[in-house]
Amino acid sequence: MKKALSIIAVLALVAVLGVALVACVPSDPEKAAENLESKGYEVVAAKKGSSISGILSGMAMPEGCETMVTGVKDLLDGDMIVIYYFEEADDAKAFYEDIKADFDMADEEDKEGMKIGRNGKVVYTGSEEAVKAAG
Questions:
Q1: How far is CA 75 from the centre of its chain?
Q2: pLDDT in tens, 104-127
Q3: CA distance linking residue 103 with residue 58, whole number of Å
Q4: What does the alpha-carbon distance between residue 22 and residue 95 come to, in Å, rounded to a whole number?
Q5: Nearest partner of 121 among 98, 87, 82, 96, judged by Cα
Q6: For every residue of the chain, which 3-state class applies, written as one string?
Q7: How far apart are alpha carbons 128 and 115 in whole angstroms?
Q8: Which of 70, 74, 77, 84 is closest to 124 using CA atoms?
Q9: Cβ contacts of residue 65 below 8 Å, gap of 6+?
Q10: How far is CA 133 from CA 15, 16, 33, 71, in A?
Q11: How confident is the model at residue 21 (pLDDT cuts 50, 70, 90)?
């Protein structure tokens, strides 16, 4: 019985660590923006209905996106991130599946150093460095 409890405890710890490693981008857009700024990224955050979201809506703000945070450190090197905060998890999932399909079809060279992911209502795409900085 004691051995079984030890195994269960280890499995629980592994599960918690796995979730911590996957959830790199904060669920709070203000926290993500703050983290990026503290690491030297230029940040633009647009909320649905703001004047900047009107500009972005035609270019990049997908359907159902409530807030979008963009952080750029070095555009030429591709050190940037875009984080999409959706109102509904289903919208985030649909958007993630679309960009994941595009990402999977890209050349390996284009994907090098890039990362995309989804955590509930949050979808992000960017350089590995920027994803770490946002977290």
A1: 18
A2: 999 998 899 999 999 999 999 999
A3: 21
A4: 18
A5: 87
A6: CHHHHHHHHHHHHHHHHHHHHHCCCCCCHHHHHHHHHHCCCEEEEEECCCHHHHHHHCCCCCCCEEEEEEEEEECCCCEEEEEEEECCHHHHHHHHHHHHHHHHHCCHHHHCCEEEEEECCEEEEEEHHHHHHHC
A7: 6
A8: 84
A9: 48, 84, 85, 86, 87, 91, 95
A10: 23, 21, 10, 10
A11: very low
Max distance between CA atoms of the chain, in angstroms, equals 62
Return d(Cα 5, Cα 20) in angstroms, integer: 23
Q: How many angstroms separate the Cα of 13 from the Cα of each of 17, 26, 56, 108, 132?
A: 6, 21, 41, 34, 22
**pLDDT tens digits for 69-94?**
999 998 888 899 999 999 999 999 99
Among 85, 90, 81, 95, CA closest to 125: 81
Whether the CB-CB separation of 9 and 102 falls below 8 Å is answered with: no
